[in-house]
Specification:
The chain contains 5 helices and 4 strands, in the order αβαβαβααβ. It is an alpha/beta fold and 141 residues long. It has one domain: HUPs (Rossmann fold, 3-Layer(aba) Sandwich). The protein has a two-stranded parallel ribbon with strand order 1-2. A two-stranded parallel ribbon has the order 3-4. α2 links the parallel β1 and β2.
C-alpha cells in the first residue's frame, strides 16, 4: 500500500492536515477473473471463491487505511464503492460527500496502457468540481 503510506506520512500529515478534517478513503476496485472460466462453462463456486479472495484484499486495504487514520489522530474512514468505472464513481462520490478536495494516487500504468485504458486520475482531474491532487506511485529502488 505505498499510496496510503505515502499520502498519510509525507503529504497529508506534514502539509495539509487541519484540526477538524474528516478524511474519506474511497476505493473502486476492478475485480479480475482472468484465472477463472466465465460464460456458460463457468464454475459458479470458483467465481464466488475468486471474488471473495479479492474482496478480502480490498477489505484489508480499507481497514488498514482507517487504522492508519486513527493512529495519526485523524477522523475518517475508508470504504469500497462499486461502479462500472472508477473515475466516474469517484467523481460522483466526491460530489455526494461534499468534499473540499480530492487527493489520489496513480496506479503507475505504462503510457500504452493509459492510452488504451484511460487514466482514472486524468478522468477525475477533468471532471471533478473541486481541486484534485495526484500523488505518483513511489518507484521501487
Amino acid at each position: 500500500m505505498p499510496v496510503v503510506d505515502n499520502f498519510l506520512s509525507k503529504r497529508y500529515l506534514n502539509n495539509l492536515k487541519q484540526p477538524n478534517d474528516y478524511v474519506y478513503g474511497i476505493t473502486v476496485p476492478e475485480y479480475n477473473f482472468a484465472g477463472v472460466t466465465v460464460g456458460p462453462l463457468a464454475d459458479p463456486q470458483a467465481l464466488q471463491d475468486d471474488f471473495i479472495t479479492q474482496h478480502k484484499v480490498v477489505e484489508k486495504l480499507c481497514s488498514d487505511f482507517t487504522a492508519k487514520l486513527r493512529q495519526a489522530g485523524v477522523k475518517g474512514q475508508a470504504d469500497e464503492q462499486s461502479g462500472d468505472k472508477p473515475g466516474p464513481t469517484l467523481v460522483e462520490m466526491a460530489e455526494k460527500l461534499g468534499v473540499d478536495c480530492v487527493i489520489m494516487g496513480t496506479r503507475g500504468l505504462s503510457k500504452l496502457k493509459k492510452l488504451l485504458m484511460g487514466s482514472v486520475s486524468s478522468y477525475v482531474v477533468q471532471h471533478c468540481n473541486v481541486p484534485v491532487s495526484v500523488i505518483p506511485l513511489k518507484k521501487k529502488d
